[in-house]
Design goal:
By secondary structure, the chain is an alpha+beta fold. It has one domain (27-105): TolA/TonB C-terminal domain (2-Layer Sandwich). Helices cover 23% and strands 27% of the residues. The chain has helices spanning 2-12, 72-85; strands at residues 28-30, 43-51, 57-62, 87-88, 97-105. The chain has a three-stranded antiparallel beta sheet with strand order 3-2-5, covered by helices on one side. A hairpin with a 5-residue loop joins β2 and β3. The chain starts with a helix and ends with a strand. Residues 1-18 have low confidence and may be disordered.
Length: 108
Amino acid sequence: MRFLLVIFLLISGFSFAQQPEPKNTRTLVEIPKTHGIKTTESCKIVLRLQIDEYGNVLGAELDRSMTTTANMELINQVIAVVKEQTKYSTLPGVPEQTVSLTIRLKSD
């Protein structure tokens, strides 16, 4: 049975080689520097970011289901830093995309 499977895979052109990344995949180019944000709690803030074709952050929305803090002052500080400092790779001709970004903060 294994012999038939191997023959089938060879005939069908199946390859075990690593597949290339899709051409419309974004990579984080500039990471936001959140070390200046003071907090008394360790937490995770997950944001859904709207990215334009040039890699700029157009908007940020909180993913409450994945975020571990309800401190809106802290969340708004993180959103401001992310919008100002985050940059993704450019994809000319690709419309706006939504990506997820997780920021982890440690208590002081």
